[in-house]
Design a protein that fits this description.
Blueprint (H helix, E strand, L loop, with lengths): L2 H16 L7 E8 L9 E10 L2 E11 L9 H5 L12 H12 L3 E4 L2 H14 L8 E4 H11 L11 H7 L10 H20 L6 H4 L2
Parallel strand pairs: 1-4, 4-5
Antiparallel strand pairs: 1-2, 2-3
Length: 209
């Protein structure tokens, strides 16, 4: 990419960030991994869904198992995936290329976004795919800031996806599955965003602070 193209991309992004958060497209995503280290552990499954406020496009939901020969380690204990779940694994390139297309011009939404993003970047690079979301939004960080502003004590376990959803009176869901967690994260994002901005046309950059 030339310097002129990089500058053009930069200014286009700045202009997009100034637009109302309600006019943006968001991709709520979750990963299942074999561990916590993106340098040595695997991405086992990816799930995501598209959000165009105020709606979640449930029909857009995608779920891919990405390892035919997984290193399960503690995976069955953490999220219940066992060897038979990988029998219909997709080629990682197919999932990543589709995700790259979806993320183009969209905001990536995750619960602890840096965890997922570090895994995604390394995984995508290994398969020759480039992921370029417009921006990243972290439902966990938003909730931590919200609680601190209200002078709440942040107890151990109070920032899990389940605990955050409970404070917004969102319904219970089946945890530790990439697709259901992506949906749960997307619902939490909408609850947070509407509490922060209401129906006001706050610029996206304000929501991302």
């Amino acid at each position: 990419m030339s310097l002129w193209q990089r500058l053009q991309t930069y200014w286009q992004r700045r202009q997009q960030l100034r637009k109302s958060w309600r006019t943006q497209r968001y991709i709520a995503l979750d990963l299942e991994t074999s561990g916590l280290d993106p340098k040595s552990d695997q991405v086992l499954a990816i799930g995501w869904v598209t959000i165009c406020p105020p709606l979640i496009d449930y029909a857009s939901g995608q779920y891919f198992v990405t390892q035919a020969q997984p290193e399960l380690k503690q995976s069955p204990v953490v999220h219940g995936m066992v060897q038979k779940d990988f029998a219909a694994a997709e080629a990682p390139e197919a999932a990543l290329k589709q995700l790259a297309k979806e993320l183009d011009g969209a905001v990536l939404v995750c619960h602890h976004v840096q965890f997922d993003w570090h895994f995604l970047q390394r995984f995508a690079k290994a398969h020759g795919v480039r992921l370029q979301p417009l921006a990243k939004y972290d439902t966990l960080t938003f909730e931590a800031h919200r609680l601190k502003q209200q002078q709440h004590h942040i107890a151990r376990g109070s920032l899990t996806l389940k605990a955050c959803r409970e404070r917004f009176r969102l319904p219970e869901y089946t945890a530790h599955h990439a697709f259901s967690d992506a949906l749960a994260c997307g619902e939490l994002f909408l609850a947070q965003a509407y509490q922060y901005a209401g129906n006001a046309d706050a610029p996206l950059k304000e929501l991302l602070k």
